[in-house]
């Protein structure tokens, strides 16, 4: 491949390695999106800014915020990181005590400003703003029906479908929202704001995380508890699957639009535990760092290998590597260092660095791994290209053996609920055996955590919840919802 062709492949946007939802060098899954909401706090915009900053890992392509001061909406959206989108002068214009905010990755909708959230509309009862994390699987079908009956869409985002369903309903806001939420299928966490109300909803399976906190008399909502912790809020609880909260001048009303039953089983995305959420967040009462340590410990029990050092791929696998080391007694060492500042650069790397692109983001610590048998802990293997690069990087640094341990089952199936996953044919585990993958990534040995081990590690209870209350469809092809609409397969986050 020529230098020119390689550069074109890896540099698709304004920035090297920016692309359009895919990373030319690294095949890690993209986090979905993050939402943050505030009800009745005088500094709603400031709290949302810090909350969104804490959720930045969930979406780095765009950020937005809408604030209600009663009669007016004040809002701003932009492409880039939270700190790039909002400055001091802009924050001064975002006046009000109700706010919703959003950080986004564009994985199925286009990466452009029109799709940045919150989406803001005028409708018969005033202003309406909507922010969501997730994906509506039947959005194309509903969109066609709405367009045929006269609706005009301004974006390619799934979120706009819900706004149209609410706006076209003859019912009041709450009942219209219930009807809309019952019409859509998928994984979603919604924040819906009017001039004086805030609605909060989680899909009937709880696929996407959403939590509630309090700061004084104000209520706050966030995709992860780390955002509540950042602003000093008290965690109250997780939003339950199928729950709809209504906050207005009458206080907090806890309602439901879908009941928890056999059809609507609890199924929180397993990848939140494995990879997406920050280690200082809690989910279902479990701390993510502790859960990942247990994954590493369980991995050591299931697939022990004698070695000299254990190291984890930064940052998401560090906790699991510590757990593996503690269980085996093999020393944990910082065998790799992550460079956090390579994502947005105008300088085109050399051909050598493009071919060994992982070194732009990860560096092996030669003095740690040279002459050693290394256990490399990682959270998942998607296409296999990143794993091969990392294994080869450790070998180039002098490792005599590299044994790879993955703290999740083999990732074989695409996600339809808000994760940017490639086509099934690109998932290496969908077509190759573990032995074949091991050879493909040039490892001395390879093992994956068992599904039972994962459920046990995150504290799931098979006695009360099917599969411990987790969605594991990416591992076992058992999707909690119907995913076939008019033969269309939709991938990634449609928000």
Describe the fold and architecture:
The strands form 6 sheets. This protein has a 7-stranded antiparallel sheet. A 6-stranded antiparallel sheet has the order 5-6-7-8-12-13, covered by helices on one side. By secondary structure, it is α+β, with helices and mostly antiparallel strands. The protein contains 19 helices and 23 strands. Helix 6 packs across helix 7, helix 10 (288-302) crosses helix 11 (318-328) and helix 10 (288-302) runs antiparallel to helix 18. The chain folds into 2 domains: 31-265, 4-Layer Sandwich (Glutamine Phosphoribosylpyrophosphate, subunit 1, domain 1); 276-476, Rossmann fold (3-Layer(aba) Sandwich). Strand 9 (211-215) and strand 10 form a beta hairpin.
What is the secondary structure topology, with strand pairs?
Layout: H1 3-10, E1 34-39, H2 44-54, E2 62-68, E3 73-79, H3 82-85, H4 88-93, E4 98-104, E5 119-123, E6 126-136, H5 139-148, H6 159-168, H7 173-183, E7 186-193, E8 198-202, E9 211-215, E10 218-222, H8 225-230, E11 234-238, E12 243-248, E13 251-256, E14 268-269, H9 270-276, E15 282-283, E16 286-287, H10 288-302, E17 309-312, H11 318-328, E18 336-338, H12 351-355, H13 358-361, E19 362-364, H14 366-369, E20 373-378, H15 385-396, E21 401-406, H16 428-431, H17 434-440, E22 445-448, H18 451-457, E23 470-471, H19 473-476
Parallel strand pairs: 14-23, 17-20, 20-21, 21-22
Antiparallel strand pairs: 1-4, 1-10, 2-3, 2-4, 5-6, 6-7, 7-8, 8-12, 9-10, 9-11, 12-13, 15-16, 18-19
Helix pairs in contact: 6-7, 10-11, 10-18
């Amino acid at each position: 491949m020529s230098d020119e062709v390689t550069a074109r492949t890896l540099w698709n946007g304004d920035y090297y390695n920016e692309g359009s939802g895919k990373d030319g060098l690294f095949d890690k899954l993209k986090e979905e999106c993050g939402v943050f909401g505030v009800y009745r706090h005088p500094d709603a915009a400031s709290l949302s800014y810090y909350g969104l900053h804490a959720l930045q890992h969930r979406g780095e392509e765009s950020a937005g915020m809408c604030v209600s001061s009663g009669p007016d909406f004040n809002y701003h959206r932009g492409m880039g990181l939270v700190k790039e989108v909002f400055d001091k002068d802009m924050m001064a214009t975002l006046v009000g005590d109700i706010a919703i905010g959003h950080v986004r990755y564009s994985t199925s909708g286009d990466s452009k400003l029109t799709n940045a959230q919150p989406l803001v509309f005028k409708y018969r009862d005033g202003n309406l703003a909507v922010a969501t994390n997730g994906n509506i699987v039947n959005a194309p079908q509903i969109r066609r029906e709405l367009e045929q009956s006269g609706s005009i869409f301004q974006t390619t985002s799934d979120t706009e479908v819900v706004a149209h369903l609410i706006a076209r309903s003859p019912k009041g806001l709450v009942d219209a929202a219930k009807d809309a939420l019952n019409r859509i299928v998928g994984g979603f966490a919604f924040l819906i704001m009017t001039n004086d109300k805030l609605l909060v909803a989680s899909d009937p399976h709880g696929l996407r995380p959403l939590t509630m906190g309090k700061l004084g008399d104000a209520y706050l909502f966030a995709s992860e508890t780390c955002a509540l912790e950042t602003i000093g809020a008290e965690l109250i609880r997780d939003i339950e699957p199928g729950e709809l909260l209504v906050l207005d001048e009458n206080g907090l009303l806890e309602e439901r639009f879908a009941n928890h039953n056999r059809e609507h089983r609890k199924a929180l995305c397993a990848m939140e535990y494995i990879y997406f959420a920050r280690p200082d967040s809690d989910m279902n009462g479990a701390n993510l760092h502790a859960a990942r340590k247990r994954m590493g410990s369980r991995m050591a029990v299931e697939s022990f290998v004698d070695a000299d050092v254990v190291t984890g791929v930064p940052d998401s696998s560090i906790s699991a590597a510590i757990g593996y080391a503690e269980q085996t007694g093999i020393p944990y060492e910082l065998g790799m260092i992550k460079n956090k500042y390579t994502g947005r650069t105008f300088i085109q790397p050399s051909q050598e660095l493009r071919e060994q692109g992982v070194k732009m983001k990860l560096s092996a610590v030669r003095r740690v791994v040279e002459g050693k048998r290394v256990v490399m802990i990682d959270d998942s293997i998607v296409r296999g290209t990143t794993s091969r690069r990392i294994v080869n990087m450790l070998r180039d640094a002098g490792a005599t053996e590299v044994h790879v341990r993955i703290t999740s089952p083999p990732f074989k199936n695409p996600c339809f609920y808000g994760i940017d996953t490639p086509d099934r044919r690109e998932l290496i585990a969908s077509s190759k055996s573990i032995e074949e993958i091991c050879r493909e990534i040039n490892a001395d040995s390879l093992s994956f955590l068992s599904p039972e081990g994962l459920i046990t590690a995150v504290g799931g209870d098979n006695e009360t919840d099917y599969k411990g209350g987790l969605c594991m469809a990416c591992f076992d092809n058992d999707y909690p919802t119907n995913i076939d609409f008019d033969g269309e397969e939709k991938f990634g986050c449609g928000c």
